[in-house]
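Extended Data, panel c. Modelled sequence:
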Amino acid sequence: MRPLFAATATPEHPMPWGWLLLALTAAALGYAASCAWWPFAKCGKCEGRGKFTRKDSKVWRLCRRCRGSGSRLRFGRKLWNRFAKVRNASR
């Protein structure tokens, strides 16, 4: 009778968790830097125009989502503003 041994499953090439963590951290820092430099993006509803026009271009109205500015605040910048507001309120 052959003895039964518990096989340990070790992969030959383990997942490089350190490199993955480094890449995710670099991506997060890059996004935070881009939100700091460029806090606004174009409005997705009006595509940055700020208004809607009819096909004959005689009648137009302002975009409700961006209120006619054509830009919106990016998600990362909203988080940063919320964090800054909470931090300043606790002082």
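The helical segments are 17-37, 75-89. This feature is highlighted in the accompanying rendering.
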